[in-house]
Amino acid sequence: MSSKLSEIESRTASARQLETVIGAMRGIAAAREREAQARLAGIRSTAATVGEAIGMVLAAAPSADPAASAPPEHAARIIIVLCTEQGFVGGFNEHLLARVERLKADEPGEIFIVGTRGVMLAQERALHYGWSVGMASHAEDVMRVASQLADAVFARFRDQASSQVWLVHATPGPGLDERIVTRRLVPFDFTRFRVASRGQAPLLNLPLDGLLRGLTERYVYLELCEGLMQSFAAESAARVGAMLAASRHVKDRLQELTRDYRIVRQDEITAEIAELAATGACVPPATSAGVSRFLRPATTD
Question: Is the pLDDT of residue 168 over 90?
Answer without folding.
Answer: yes
